[in-house]
Amino acid sequence: MKILIIGAGIGGASAGIALRRLGHEVEIYEQVTENRPVGAAISVWPNGVKVLNWLGLGAQTAALGGRVEFMSYREAATGETMCRFSLAPVTEQMGQRPYPIARAELQAMLMEAFGVQDIRFGKRMSAIEQDEHSVTVTFADGTTATGDALIAADGAKSLARAYVVGEELERRYAGYVNVNGLVRADPEVAPTDQWTLWVGAGKRVSVMPVGGDRFYFFFDVVEPAGLRPERGAVRESLAAHFAGWAPEVHRLISLMDPETTNRVEIFDLDPFHTWVKGRVALLGDAAHNTTPDIGQGGCSALEDTVVLERAFATTTISVPDTLARYAAARSRRAGDLVLWARRRAALMHGEDPELTEAWYEELRGEDGTNVLRGIIGNMVDNPLG
Predict the structure, then answer these.
(1) CA nearest 349: which of 310, 292, 270?
(2) Starting at the edge strand that comes first in sequence, how are the strands of the sheet with 119-121 ordered?
(3) Model confidence, pTM
(4) What is the total count of domains within the chain?
């Protein structure tokens, strides 16, 4: 069977690896001309790592990932510890440790595992047509590709989504901007084996270790959508937004490289369950665009890959039937993760200031039990157990 995949990101590349090892002819088309991921790094929690292990990439994943032994929340102004606890229970219950990984390195690993030479870059999809025997994609350069099935892993701003659903779905602005990047790991900012978060006034600052003796950092800033500050002014902008915060936060700002720092407006999409139209199926952010507030966006795309491969491996009635079974097995859980992340975003970013302040007070007495319950709860129904 010939399967076309649109998008060479985490979802598309992992799906390509999985479907090719079933013996299918797989072609991946990617609109960018090089590996340029959005966001500096990604938290790959055990449910996502298990998928990478299942794809045969366990050793490479461990080599790229940071070792996160502890998690700590700190007061915004003083930097004093609100709570600190071990993440060992996550590893013990899930049977796998988490790995924060630089996004470009994760995507490069997946592309290389599929075969970078086999990815058609610079191919922006412009139209989809299908009949009872095949599906054809037309690209902006006028070329076409035809196959038995099409997996649209074309991201949060998916062009395939409207084709599948039958209408344009409007994404919802989550109310904040995430400024993120990579810096050298610095123990004067935070312990290099710990995920550290400073919280206050509906804002967050975070650092966590990734491979290569680096920190992945992010700053969450509550502001309207559509602002376009100059890239070179990012330090000044963050210094103003976080004036009066702990010295460690301002040291982190001083370490940033404005030229390699990303500014991402955060959106999500109301869950929907029409993921398939005939021979065309959505995967990853195209199907379940979520905020990063529970760290499950990329992991959810990896879960899609497992269920998609199982559907192709075990069902033979028809391509539309196989794809419909994939969607039926995935859309409910993926939609739940979107809503859980949305609620978490509202709590952490001060949508209801009284609730946010109550959360801060809970953190001051937290021994890890409630936070760990939430982290593990996001993973317990994953397809690899």
Answers:
(1) 292
(2) 119-121, 25-30, 2-6, 149-152, 280-282, 276-277
(3) 0.96
(4) 1
